[in-house]
Amino acid sequence: LFLFTELLLFGGLFLVYMIYRFIYHDAFLHASYDLNVIMGTVNTIVLLTSSMTVAMSITAMQKGDINLSLRLIWITIIAAGIFLVIKYFEWSA
Q1: CA atoms of 42 and 18, how far apart (whole Å)
Q2: With helix as H, strand as E and coil as C, how does 13-56 read?
Q3: Do 54 and 76 form a contact (C-beta atoms < 8 A)?
Q4: Most distant CA atoms of the chain, gap in Å
Q5: How far is CA 52 from CA 30, 33, 66, 70, in A?
């Protein structure tokens, strides 16, 4: 049930995105010139890495390795800080 509701939510969001992109093609094209590809790429890598470290932390906790779990959570917190710094520079530009 949870996966089905997530599919409906994100499917609807992607559908609305595609419709708006089709209707307002010029606006999307103009907006894409303002994007910084390097910052977006680094931010995506940071987000994927932080998701991985949280999942690894949960696995370490389930296996009883508290120290590894705490280190991975700290890495996730540091990644969150990096994400916020990148967003600050991206939005202030």
Answers
A1: 25
A2: HHHHHHHHHHHCHHHHHHHHCCCCHHHHHHHHHHHHHHHHHHHH
A3: yes
A4: 54
A5: 34, 31, 17, 14
User: CB-side exposure of 53: number of CA atoms within 13 Å?
Assistant: 18
CA dihedral 10, 12, 15, 19 (to 10 degrees): -130
Q: Tell me, letter by letter, the H, E, C secondary structure of 65-90.
A: CHHHHHHHHHHHHHHHHHHHHHHHHH
Which tokens hold the place of 85? 């710094």
pTM for this entry: 0.72
**What rounded mean pLDDT belongs to the chain?**
94
- Per residue in 24-68, pLDDT (tens digit) is 999 999 988 888 889 999 999 999 999 999 999 999 999 999 999
